[in-house]
Amino acid sequence: MSDVAPAATLAIPPRCAWCAADLDADARRLAGRTVCGACGVATTTPWPSRRELDEAHAGAYRPQGGRFAGPGDALLRRTRGFLARRIDALAPPGAVLDIGCGDGALLRALAGRGRAGLGLELGADEGRSPRAARSAAIPPRVVEADVEDLDEGWAAIVAWHSLEHLPAPGLALDGAAARLAPRGLLVVAMPNAASVQARVFGDRWLALDPPRHLVHVPAAALCARVRAAGLRVERRSHLRGGQAAFGWLHGLVGALPGTADLYDAVRRPDARKVGQSPGRRAATLAAAGALTPLALAAAGLEAAAGRGGSIYLEARRD
Ligand SMILES: [Zn+2]
Asked: How many angstroms separate the alpha carbon of residue 17 from the centre of ligand 1?
């Protein structure tokens, strides 16, 4: 990875993982992260080692049988179908690169529309890509590589809730912008560290997700970097990036006594970080049901105020 990424051995990262500025006296120390005085992006502190990251992304994070209980995984596939249709309509002809492609659902949906694609995923070369990706009729091509190592000329490059998992996400974004074909489309979705929910829930905000999320980026910092890379932002949304209402629901349920972690409660048993008794899980899900209208209202209000829980943007190379 890049030499501007914070050193793996230091508990306090010396540099901002987003803009590479020194995290010196101007930096603000918070629980589990340090806010850069230059760009406002927070870098996860302590900075995890590669081994810690591998462990945090393996096992329960993404088990072979799927992550979510009930209709969750099917819903996720369906939303990837919508995204594939949108990318296919907006991008010029050509292949699509999916940075952090997970189980390859977006690439398969794009293949169904006749779009060739390549996925980048941690551990892909070691045969650890999820079963769904390997068993597809035409398995999407998935490799472990940095975007900076690839050739240019992509019709679209997608980073769907993946930049925040990279050790040098700012450089990856610059690299993606530089590798778009003329009129090529960049699609990014990530948590918005400047959202109302981030402020309300503070150190227990769902999208901090340590140690997997290495940076915590305000939407304005993301847009500024995309523009600085020479792209034109065509669309910015606080609803299309997903997770906005769930962030509220997770935080509200977690504030009630006797509840368990909601994110774990909606996952399959083998996809949970911590085991849950049936009674506690039932209480957690019941609380979630009761609080859903409130969470939806809060997510709608913060999005309308331009401070939604996630940021989705489409940007084009002219
Ligand atoms: Zn910075």
From this structure: 7
Cα 21 to averaged position of ligand 1 atoms, centre (Å): 5
Q: What are the strands of the beta sheet with 141-143, ordered from one edge?
A: 141-143, 117-120, 96-99, 154-160, 180-191, 310-317, 231-237
Asked whether residue 158 falls in the same domain as residue 177, the answer is yes
The predicted-structure confidence for 236-284, as pLDDT tens digits, reads as follows 999 888 888 999 999 999 998 888 888 888 877 777 777 778 888 888 9
User: How close is the Cα of 14 to the center of ligand 1, in Å?
Assistant: 11
Q: Both 210 and 312 in a single domain? A: yes
CA of 191 to the centre of ligand 1 (A): 17
DSSP 7: P
The string of pLDDT tens digits covering residues 40-94 is 999 999 999 888 888 888 765 666 556 666 666 677 777 889 999 999 999 999 9
Domain interval for residue 288: 246-301
Question: Alpha-carbon distance 122 to 138, whole Å?
Answer: 20
Residues 170 and 294 in one domain: no
Instruction: Based on the fold, state whether residues 114 and 194 are members of the same structural domain.
Output: yes
